[in-house]
Every structure is written in C-alpha cells, then in structure tokens.
Amino acid sequence: MNENIVKRNQLLAQKVIAGVESRNMKGYYAASKEEALKLALSLIPEKSSISMGGAMSAHEIGLVDALKAGDYNFIDRDATEDKRAAMLAAYDADFFLSSANAITEDGIIVNIDGNSNRVSAIAQGPKHVVFIVGMNKVCPDVDSAMKRARNVAAPINAQRFGLSTPCAKTGACMDCKSPDTICCQFLITRFSRHEGRIHVIMVNDTLGY
Questions:
Q1: Residue ranges in the chain assigned as alpha helix (H)
Q2: Fewest beta carbons within 10 Å, which of 55, 119, 120, 158?
Q3: Architecture of domain 3-138+191-203
Q4: Reduced to 3 states, what is the DSSP secondary structure of residue 207?
Q5: What is the pLDDT of residues 96-119, one digit of tens each?
Q6: Pick from 102, 93, 105: which is nearest to 129 by CA?
Q7: The pTM of the whole model exceeds 0.85
Q8: What does the pLDDT read at residue 2?
Q9: Which strands sit side by side in the sheet containing 73-74, from one edge to the other?
C-alpha cells in the first residue's frame, strides 16, 4: 500500500477510534491483517464460546480459521443442520464477531440485516462484541454511512447470496420490498451502555464489502 495512503488511514483511524471511545466502546488500530488477527485473539480468552454473523472481514484476517483450530467453543452455524439453534446460541455466547457495513468518522456503526440475527446480537445478548472493520468502511457521517450500506454492501451481498433483488441486478439500492430483500432491519450503534462490551478493530486494509 502507498505510504501516503497508509499515513492517511492511520490518522483517520485515530479519529474514528476517538469517536468510538467517546461512545463507551473500545477502539483499536491494526496496521495489517496479521496485526488485526493477533489483536483480536488477544481479546478472546481460550475456552470462550464464540459466534458470529456473516462477517467476511473476520474470515479475511484469518480469525475464523484460528478460532476453529484453537481451544475455543466456536459455534459454527454453517456446520450444523439446526441453524436456528446455532443462531439462538449466539445470544448467550461470550463473544460475537461482526463487521460493519459502514462506520462514521465519529464512531457510529451502521449495519443492515436480512434475518436480523446479526444486528440483534450486536444490540443485545452476547457478553462481548468484536468488530473487524477495514478502512474502506469509513464514511463522513450517518447519512453517507447509510448510503454505503444500502448501495455498496447490500447489492454485493445480495449478489453473493444469489438473491433475486433489484439491487443484485442494478448494483444500486432500489428501496425494494422484494421477498429476497436483505435490508429488513437497520441498526445504528451510537453508544454502548455497557462499558467494555463492544470492541472495534480498525484495520489498515480493504476488508469485506
């Protein structure tokens, strides 16, 4: 990565982290995927129970593979036929892994969900939530973050899941009410009432969608 981009990302990440911490959440900066992996593992004690939503960023830094290979109780909904039970178990997990569809420069996190298991677990249930967020997700404000979530993340995810939504065909949000829509629930995380519950790792890389 160009050194000027690295420096810009580092400075911007510090601004985001200051915003995150002003909202009673913990913020961290990782200069690389490898550093992000080490940091995430340092936050999760062995023997912990761990669940997740569809966080591609956690896969991309190698966190999911590391947890599956380590001494952890990883609740893998993709490895069981009873996906509902796995999703419900997430609410009592020690840690929940997620990414963000967007995050503002002052630390507000925006997520959109179809089944809503991810946004509901972020809001309530698991003892801790760890966000892995690439610098490509940073937006100036909530309005632009919502636009990113709807016009970048949602169309790509709809295409990834092979859904028949207007955005999957056009590449942009059509504010649809399609039966396949994944824009069912919107969560704006602007503050955490529980100190130390939410951890946000900003990674100096392009991660997820």
A1: 3-21, 33-43, 56-60, 63-69, 83-89, 117-123, 142-148, 154-160, 166-170
A2: 120
A3: 3-Layer(aba) Sandwich (3.40)
A4: coil
A5: 999 999 999 999 999 999 989 999
A6: 93
A7: yes
A8: 84
A9: 26-30, 198-203, 128-134, 95-98, 49-52, 73-74
Q: Which residue is listed with tokens 């396949």?
A: 180
Task: Enter the tokens of residue 181.
Answer: 């829509």
DSSP H stretches of helix in 54-149:
56-60, 63-69, 83-89, 117-123, 142-148
Q: Give whole-number Cα distances, 98 to 8, 37, 58, 111, 123, in Å.
A: 25, 14, 7, 10, 12
Distances (CA, A) of 180 to 79, 112, 148, 161, 184: 23, 14, 20, 10, 10
Provide the sign of the torsion angle of the four alpha carbons 50, 54, 56, 60, taken in this order. Answer: positive
Phi, psi dihedral angles at 198 (to 5 degrees) = -105, 130
Q: Give the DSSP letter string of 36-72.
A: HHHHHHHHS-TT-EEEE-S-HHHHHTTHHHHHHHSSS
CA distance 88 to 49: 13
Do β-strands 73-74 and 49-52 pair in parallel, antiparallel, or remain unpaired? parallel
Read off the pLDDT band of 124 (50, 70, 90): very high
Question: Which residue, 87, 89, 140, is CA-closest to 114?
Answer: 87
Write down how long the chain is. 209
